[in-house]
Amino acid sequence: MANTGIARYKLLLIEDDRPMAEAMKGLLLQWGFQVVICENFDHIMEQYGAAEPHIVLMDINIPAYDGFYWCKKIREVSSVPIVFVSSRESSMDIVMAINNGGDDYIQKPFDPHVLVAKLQAIIRRTYEYRTTDQHVLACGDILLNLNDAAIHCGNESIELTRNEFKIMRILMERKGRVVSREQLMKQLWDDDCYVNENTLTVNLNRLRKRLEDIGAPDYIRTKKGMGYIIP
Asked: 133-141 contacts: CB < 8 A, separation 24 or more?
């Protein structure tokens, strides 16, 4: 039975055994996940960027390089959860999977219920960061109050401007994923008027300075040529 709370989460499946990939997709769709199957193993990073998944499910043995290599490449730009699913069973494979940035390792053949339970647990740990007060977002040491647009870090707090608040909310809700400048501009100024890109830069620089003042330097990271991320 599908878990409707999972429905907003997208999964990128990197599996070169097509019948296995389709079977896994069918299972995960039943549980409410959105599923994108990798189609080109020479361009995994491009497909990762296009899909913007909340979680990656990856085999080790794939045609181009291997899963360890692509896990490291993804880790260069994102802290998105990565779960290995492989028929390889040596303890060294598990160690390498974790050491290269993987979050979990599931051996084939697997119990479908175990796979789903593990994915749900990782998503809860990674993305269910809302407190019992649904008007607050929390990522790391930062709390964002959605009612009054105030940021709290330890004993320090500041009130954000309209644009600063929008930027923080977008990045916190997409924690671990890169948000492009184009996406931010569309969210901030989604109308017919022309807005100079420098306006976004000014807003981001001011927000970073304010975060630094309350003890959160480098909270918003720049991924050159890609956009911004809260890791």
From this structure: 137/169, 137/172, 137/173, 139/172, 139/175, 139/230, 140/219, 140/230, 141/215, 141/216
CATH topology of domain 136-229: Arc Repressor Mutant, subunit A (1.10.10)
Strand partners, 86: 107
DSSP-assigned states of every residue in 158-201: EEPPHHHHHHHHHHHHTTTS-B-HHHHHHHH--SSS---HHHHH
pTM over the 0.70 mark? no
What is the predicted pLDDT for the residue at 122?
Answer: 86
Query: How many CB atoms are located within 10 Å of the residue 68 CB?
Result: 18
Quick one: average pLDDT of 32-61?
91
Angle (nearest 5°) at CA 46 between 40 and 48:
90
Q: Which homologous superfamily does the CATH classification assign to the domain defined by 4-127?
A: Response regulator (3.40.50.2300)
